[in-house]
Amino acid sequence: MKLLNYQDPSASWKEKGYTLPQYRREEVAAATKKSPSWVHFGAGNIFRAFPAALSQRLLNTGEYDRGIVVCESFDTEIIEKAYRPYDNLSLLVTLKADGSIDKEVIGSVTASYLAEGEDWAEIKSIFASPSLQMVSFTITEKGYSLRGASGSYIPDVQQDIDSPSAQPKSLMGKLTALLLHRYACGSLPIAMTSMDNCSHNGDKLKSAILEIAGKWLEKGHVPQAFIDYLNDPQKVSFPWSMIDKITPRPDEKVQEMLKSDGFEDAGVIITQKKTYTAPFVNAEQAQYLVIEDHFPAGRPPLEKAGVLFASRETVDQVERMKVCTCLNPLHTSLAVFGCLLGFETICQEMGDPDLLAMVKRLGYVEGMPVVVDPGIIKPKDFIDEVVNIRLPNPFMPDTPQRIATDTSQKLPIRFGQTIQAYLKRPDLKLEDLKVIPLVFAGWCRYVMGIGDSGAAFDPSPDPLLDSVQQTLKGISLGSTIVPGETLKPLLSNQGIFGVDLYAVGMAETVEKLFQEMIEAPGAVRKVLHRVVQ
User: Fold this and answer.
1) pLDDT tens-digit readout, 469-527
2) Taking Cα atoms as reference points, which of 391, 396, 282, 240 lies closest to residue 326?
């Protein structure tokens, strides 16, 4: 059984529980090539497990007749090794909490391109098409950044700003150039729809594109009318969205299960950029996608596939509910302490009384008082599902090491927003926050790369890892820090914590907890237990 022969009647796909595309894929591919309507940037696991699966649902039911064109700019090996050899097909393995699984061949991706080289002309031609309605993104929050840790432009961005070319280097430069091309083809409307897991994602995308376009205007490379086009919401919109679905790295157990079925395309691919991918994706069952309904060129009927469309205000409320309270802070706290305490999976952590108490207090006690009910999803129902079903799912092979990636970029939103909300509410006291300073201290302890056992480990990739480790240089187990001095460059950094922890009066607590955590092996567990129990 190989993906390329999913239409072979002699294969035993259905007998072994595999769901197959219920449409003529060649007809969908032809219709998409003639009138493309949806382009997606970011060919990773979340795309194949969620947006691509949504598109397939529309195709299966006959609600839509076109698929998705996917582009990759960061790790081109994904396209070269996980897409093209399999004619852009993939296998979605849904891991349910009751132990059952669904296996579905996804065929909604009709073309895959590298956002560079020979493929660039084809991408430009798609952006010139009046039929194009939406461009979506799952490129991670750092994909929208124009500057590095020093505050200076990333070299590729600087090159794009200084010397606009026919083929820019940075993704934001490429998108600005593609929109310039669409503008030149008649100011055609488009929705630039970020589906990334970050606050006000549409604004992050818009800000990056407008900054590059503004620099081009200053240098005389583009007319003011192009800037006006980008700023006209009836021409170019940047909807906000909230996305939620856990898609871990391809798991060995899933791989073996597929091989036992006779599925031959179960090999795991590790790219040079350390992306873990495969012809299959394993993911949880739960999924949410709420999008601001602002599409000046129209859109596919994704509401018929389960997407919730709402006002910007409602999307903001749903996003804050999830990112600031009901899931993401819980995930980050489990990631930090899971790495320190030597856990290999998130579900194992949920069986630990201290860690379970930590996430329950963080969500139900500290976060829930500042959550606004968005109406379309109830916060209590959402967090109940997270704590009782999703995170403890023993069949979800998600790891604290994966979740710990880029933690410095996540802390200001996942925790800083709650602190700011407390400061604005006279009925709430900042000193009642016990777990948030515990997580901050735990992250500082985590960055040291020394587990609670005393053994060294490699912290997950993070754009600020080197600079933060430099601040902590010289600190080891048994060290004594100087309050108000040793950690001040770190704890006063609003970019990391969302607030200056000294200014709001939380730094002293974080310093004390950190000092206790570095006393000796076992100190992290001791502090964790004392605070949460």
Assistant:
1) 999 999 999 999 999 999 999 999 999 999 999 999 999 999 999 999 999 999 999 99
2) 391
Say which DSSP state 118 is in. G
Which of 384, 379, 329, 387 is CA-nearest to residue 357? 387
Sign of CA dihedral 314, 496, 447, 272: positive
Give the chain's end-to-end CA distance (angstroms, integer): 52
Q: What are phi and psi of 33, to 5 degrees?
A: -65, -40
Measured from the Cβ of residue 331, the count of other Cβ atoms closer than 10 Å reads: 22
Closest residue by Cα to residue 146 from 168, 129, 170: 170
Identify residue 166 by its one-letter amino acid code. A
Low-confidence ranges of the chain (pLDDT < 70): none
Query: Nearest-CA neighbor of 202 among 295, 126, 287?
Result: 295
What is the rounded radius of gyration, in angstroms, for the C-alpha atoms of the chain? 24
Q: Which two tokens stand for residue 253?
A: 């157990």
Task: Give the separation between CA 497 and CA 349, rounded to whole angstroms.
Answer: 25
Long-range Cβ contacts of 525-530 (<8 Å, 24+ apart)? 525/341, 525/354, 525/452, 527/438, 527/441, 528/337, 528/354, 528/355, 528/358, 528/438, 528/442, 529/354
Q: Taking the model in full, what pTM does it have?
A: 0.84
Residue 277's H or E segment, with its range, is: strand 276-277
- The DSSP call for residue 98 is T
pLDDT one-digit tens code per residue, 250-262 = 988 899 999 999 9
Contact status, residue 214 vs residue 366, Cβ threshold 8 Å:
no
- Both structure tokens of 10: 């002699």
Phi-psi region of 322 (alpha: psi -120 to 50; beta: other; left: phi over 0): alpha
Alpha carbon 342 to its chain's center: 24
Where are the extended beta strands (E) located within 88-168?
90-95, 101-106, 109-114, 134-137
Q: What are phi and psi of 34, to 5 degrees?
A: -70, -45
